[in-house]
Fold these 2 entries.
Entry 1:
Amino acid sequence: MVKKAVILFSGGLDSATVLYLAQREGYRCRPIVFDYGQRHRREIISARRIARAADVPCEVLKVPFPRKSSSLTDPTARIPLGNAGKKTRAIPSTYVPARNIVFLSLAVSFAESIGAEAVFIGANAVDFSDYPDCRPMFYTAFRRTIVVGTKSGTEGRSVKILAPLLYKTKAEIVKLGFALGVPYRLTWSCYQGGRRPCGRCDSCAFRAKGFREAGRADPLVVAAAMNGRRGRG
Amino acid sequence: MVKKAVILFSGGLDSATVLYLAQREGYRCRPIVFDYGQRHRREIISARRIARAADVPCEVLKVPFPRKSSSLTDPTARIPLGNAGKKTRAIPSTYVPARNIVFLSLAVSFAESIGAEAVFIGANAVDFSDYPDCRPMFYTAFRRTIVVGTKSGTEGRSVKILAPLLYKTKAEIVKLGFALGVPYRLTWSCYQGGRRPCGRCDSCAFRAKGFREAGRADPLVVAAAMNGRRGRG
């Protein structure tokens, strides 16, 4: 019997690592990507490329988030820069209301309907932007909701919500990904969604920290630099 | 300060009653209706009419549910008939995987982004089809998820999830609705989505039971009968 898993997939470093991890654990993977009006929509292109590299189908689902609710979906807002890793800070404006709750709910629905036993999410609560829906206590509560609120849950075979990167540092994730052969060159993390990573938003900063502390070069940054040199030459 | 509420709104008897109840309680209401590929899509037309009658804007959001996951979304499947109220029965094929979890999550996202303090849902755990996401224990779990998984929740002002009909019989709901002036003639409950209510699906059966036990005629059925007589005459 093949075991199936739905992967919450964004085209970023974490979810790409999770996809390759789930594959190694023997799951037949069904990544789903959400088009929710994010300004860095180029992550969807990255997601498709990585799925192709991993030889899995990739589903893109449109989800109606209110545009004005976050600097990540409002093109007139500014993405906060230079904040990653500061000790005392509030939840940043890139917070999208209830995003992971919506994504996980849709993933569970999809999982139940295709008979998948697990949903994987690349959430991380170590090197992260303090989003409440990335914290372990949220996952505990959400799992309980699924157990009591779904058919499979009431039948004792609840869809498992797996967040294998939750307690890892970004460096540990990067090392794991290299060991799994994740094509990091194809991933996209920058919130700004420009032609190249900005290097200053939270997402770029945590990514850079991960590669630095893992003692590896970021293949995406290397490729961008190469292209830049070629462009000038 | 105006208090705002998002209403999970289907155009059916329960959610129309909840809309009018929330209005009476002084909320400025923002009903949202989901277009999720349900075969009874005419409930969306009903929803718009009721919203107009209640003088509130009505948002229709498309949500990507897998079609094959339920007899409610798969036009080639059969809607089960004649089962309502049976003592021992399984969750029927009209169950849509994680539907209320998805709907509530999106409603909470919408509520957070417009600064609404509550989400109302017309869920009922007395005269209902045994859907797991209509049971009180599900709401307890979901509330906890919102408290720990959202920005407003972590700031101590969590969006309230209100299910005022949860413990009422259908007859009590009908009586409440008449007292509130709900235009039941405009509502739609039948799962089959034909020109007239089929009278045999779970949803029609529970509705009929409610009006019967409340000692009232169902204005929708009366109107359909009048039209039929006129058509034949």
Entry 2:
Amino acid sequence: MKKVYLDNAACTPLDPRVFEVMTPYFVEEYGNPATIHSYGLAPREGMEKAREQVGLLLNAKPENVFFTSNGSESNNMAIKGVCFANQARGKHIIVSEIEHFSVLQAVKSMEKLGFTSSQLKVGTDGIVKTDELKNLIKDETVLVSIMLANHEIGTIQPIAEAAAVIKKINADRVLRKLQPVYLHTDAVAAVGVIPVDVEALGIDLLSLASSSFYGPKGAAALYIRNGVRINPLIDGGIQEGGRRAGLENVPAIVGMGKAAEFAKSEMIERNKKMEPLRDLMIQLILKNITQVRLNGDAKKRLPGNVNVSVEFIEGESMLMWLDDVGIAASSGSACTSKALKASHVLLSIGVPQEVCHGSMLFSLNKDITKTEVEFAAEEFTKIVKKLREMSPLYKKS
Amino acid sequence: MKKVYLDNAACTPLDPRVFEVMTPYFVEEYGNPATIHSYGLAPREGMEKAREQVGLLLNAKPENVFFTSNGSESNNMAIKGVCFANQARGKHIIVSEIEHFSVLQAVKSMEKLGFTSSQLKVGTDGIVKTDELKNLIKDETVLVSIMLANHEIGTIQPIAEAAAVIKKINADRVLRKLQPVYLHTDAVAAVGVIPVDVEALGIDLLSLASSSFYGPKGAAALYIRNGVRINPLIDGGIQEGGRRAGLENVPAIVGMGKAAEFAKSEMIERNKKMEPLRDLMIQLILKNITQVRLNGDAKKRLPGNVNVSVEFIEGESMLMWLDDVGIAASSGSACTSKALKASHVLLSIGVPQEVCHGSMLFSLNKDITKTEVEFAAEEFTKIVKKLREMSPLYKKS
């Protein structure tokens, strides 16, 4: 059977070229990078090279890149770390309503410890209303967290605009001897996929994960600008400059570095291929299926993201039927796909609850072909038709 | 040059048989285990098999095993998770004074949030005085954390005795409608090396790490008994039963499982080989070098642990010279080896500060040979002699 993997938002395939570079760090170079004898040398050098490669991808200095184990850890580290380190100065956080669960739940945990939070609204286009920031920031605000690209609907957020608003507020706060408000962006879905420049964005903290750009599982990072006050999430030894304790996952970190290098050098080429195929897939779906909508802005979206809602049928059923013909897709976030709840992201952009359940995320990768897109769109169309024939709701409509 | 790796306390070599089992989960089975389509199947099954294998090693049910990224994360999750979940009931923690930095620093972080802590003393033999527990436990105590085997001096602690003391106290607390005190053990240095049975130990939480028993970096776990109230360290999605969010490091987890299986089936054989060679090494060092002491009880210690303090010379110098002849050892904990501070563990057992600096940890592994031990002991003796010839302190003695 032909197989088409269109669930790259959940996890991209590991690039075999990346695995090749990782391989010596398993059985041969097994030393602990913290050791001062010669077994520590290659692992340490491998990690530091990776830190440079990741830094280059972000336009950041390597010393501002701190490795973690996954994107959720990076987000928790950013939010809890900043909150705990700055709580004497204020206990208010602002996040957008379409953040990843690892951001929203971390905020909930801080609320149980006395913090309060405000949510930035999002338009029906899936773009966060950053101009509301100036009304939400209070003297007690310590952190704003807005994602760079949404993990479900793929919309790319105006982070630089948010940073500009915050910069202005911070200039005034300095005069009033208040600490600056920090800006964190969850860029897990963005880094390695679209250009991300920490200087151009003007952010203070940024989360990224290797599994979004054909790197291995088990490696992710948090960029932290110099001077940001932040506590570790994992306390202990002096690894990662004392910011993240414990034995480092050397092979995965080395792989993340190599994947970052490829992402940087191949990004333009990859997106030149993916974007037209994404648009083709959207076009085929909107043309061939009735009562279907594209979720999120058509232009300001990740190059591989096709998120649609089909009325009168269930996402889970579509997924199963697609899987039967060899197509892997998703009905939403991989982190919550078993929970069977309507996506908070789709609800935020005004998709009605019952339509949310008929949502489907096809996420393309760098190796996608036109044949695959056409095949997937055709099979999807057939499946929607068949499922609707069985749907009492559709018949009534 | 002949190479002898005697720094297995920092990290054991990855067993090539383990790497072989991990390999398909990199490039081929790259799916996200949370996905419901067929790409998620093999990763999910691989992880669940690993959970069973780890459970079998601990005499635990698989559903009580929660995967993390390293031992420090497991320790932080246990301590912070229990503290945050139970803080309405009390804010007091008890730990031994020879705990790993990831335990001690996690406790410090909780102290900044209003918790207090007490330290259990340790004897000159490196064994924690668990009978002191009954005097230290207060109504406000929520957690006791005592390691199973010390990471530096290798001493094996009487955890079952500590559990018995706590069980008695908890029986009384139940009558007084107080919540039970939980017992956590950092078993990172012990699991996979000596028999560990969560039922026989009577603990509530137990940390372990793959890198201690020839498994890969990037995988570790926390055992949590049913009914223990604990918050996640990493909030977000529903992975690991909602206890540890984020994409799982599938290949490393699969490897940890296989390494656990080998540890269980080969443990007796491994230790039958290691223990006499450990004793031989200790014997050769004590015989050939003057003014040297063995740290930690000679019998109640890990099968591969040789920790000695040599007077009048520096551990760092010995390490460098040993490295020059191909021998990798450690001057203490890998997590702090760059910090050049006297080990808190050695200070606790009464080693004078200046002697602490002359300490050396040789940690053997399952593949050690008699020839290697003899070579290492001989080279070490020569190096000590040469360094002492250069030491003004030694000349004065």
